């Protein structure tokens, strides 16, 4: 492990401590939902600017075999911990523009320090762009948190449900690939195979999340039938991807894992749909 990793670990620990305090202060399940939702919003933004836009590159030094997968580990620190935690703090403590400005300045200072220490490399991206983005992201986080108090229905309910489900699927999809390289995707979008795998994964998990949300919204049908239907659908998709050589599987357990964990997520997260419909 390189010295860079300790900076990322330290930032992650601080974020987890702050997140724990904010969740304890909120004493509400909607705060947990909010963390997932804002994580997914960060994931979607990162998909556009980092994965497909090649805006910057993280250098945490966790993984030696692949620089891009190592960069992804740094991206997880930012998008799964730092940014959603700051969003929850702003929402729970109802911080207004002065508090939001302090949060943006702090994150900008961290970004600047990371660049100076060689922990993070900017390509065409600028720290000012981060500040501009956060001036929209953080107020949106407050709106989402307040909206979760009230019942949701229709497209809004589906959207909120997607934002809860998707980051769980996305994280469980890509983390094993980065750590043990159990599968790889080859769409031919980029010259670097790990970059290609990450990019295709970012599309794949969104599609799977939409499938699961759609299944949750269907009122008729037994839960276990839907469980099997999701697993069967993913099995068919897997066979198609293998046949077209978009997918390569490197370990025996991979198909079992990718067929079963989305179905299991459907079972475990199904109550979230009812809770969002009730609000509170």
Topology record:
Elements: H1 3-26, H2 29-51, E1 56-58, H3 67-92, H4 97-116, E2 120-122, H5 127-147, H6 154-180, E3 183-185, H7 193-217, H8 223-243, E4 247-249, H9 254-278
Antiparallel strand pairs: 1-2, 3-4
Helix pairs in contact: 1-3, 2-3, 2-6, 3-5, 4-5, 6-7, 6-9, 7-9, 8-9
Description:
The chain crosses the membrane at residues 6-24, 31-53, 73-93, 100-121, 127-145, 157-179, 199-216, 223-243. Keywords: Membrane, Transmembrane, Transmembrane helix. The protein is 76% helix and 4% strand. It is mainly α and 280 residues long. The protein has 2 domains: 1-149, no CATH class; 152-280, no CATH class. The longest helix has 27 residues, at 154-180.
Summarize the structure.
Keywords: Membrane, Transmembrane, Transmembrane helix. By secondary structure, this protein is mainly alpha-helical.
Based on CA atoms alone, the radius of gyration comes out at 19 Å
Neighbour order of strands in the largest sheet = 1-2
**Structural class of the helices, strands and pairings?**
mainly alpha
Beta strand %: under 5%
Order of helices and strands: HHEHHEHHEHHEH
The whole-number mean of residue pLDDT values reads 94
Which residue ranges are poorly predicted, with pLDDT under 50 across at least 5 consecutive positions? Answer: none
| SS element count, helices | 9
Return the domain count: 2
Overall 3D form? globular
Helix amount: over 70%
Distance between the termini: 44 Å
Number of strands: 4
Largest sheet: 2 strands, antiparallel
């Amino acid at each position: 492990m390189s010295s860079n990793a300790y900076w990322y670990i330290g930032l992650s620990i601080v974020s987890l401590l702050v997140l724990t305090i904010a969740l304890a202060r909120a004493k509400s399940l909607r705060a947990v939902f909010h963390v997932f939702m804002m994580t997914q919003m960060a994931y979607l933004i990162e998909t556009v600017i980092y994965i497909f836009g090649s805006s910057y590159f993280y250098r945490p030094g966790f993984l030696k075999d692949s620089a891009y997968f190592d960069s992804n580990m740094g991206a997880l620190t930012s998008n799964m911990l730092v940014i959603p935690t700051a969003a929850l703090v702003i929402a729970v403590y109802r911080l207004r523009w002065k508090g939001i400005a302090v949060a943006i300045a702090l994150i900008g200072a961290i970004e600047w320090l990371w660049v100076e220490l060689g922990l993070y490399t900017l390509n065409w991206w600028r720290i000012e762009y981060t500040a501009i983005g956060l001036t929209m992201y953080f107020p949106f986080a407050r709106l989402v948190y307040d909206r979760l108090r009230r019942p949701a229905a229709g497209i809004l309910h589906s959207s909120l449900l997607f934002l809860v489900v998707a980051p769980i699927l996305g994280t469980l999809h890509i983390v094993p690939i980065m750590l043990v390289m159990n599968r790889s995707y080859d769409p031919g979008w980029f010259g670097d195979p790990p970059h290609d795998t990450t990019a295709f994964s970012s599309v794949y998990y969104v599609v799977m999340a939409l499938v699961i949300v759609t299944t949750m919204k269907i009122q008729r049908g037994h839960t276990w039938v839907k469980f099997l239907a999701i697993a069967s659908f993913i099995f068919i998709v897997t066979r198609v991807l293998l046949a077209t050589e978009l997918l390569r599987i490197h370990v025996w357990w991979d198909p079992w894992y990718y067929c079963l964990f989305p179905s299991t997520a459907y079972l475990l997260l199904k109550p979230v749909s009812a809770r969002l419909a009730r609000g509170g």
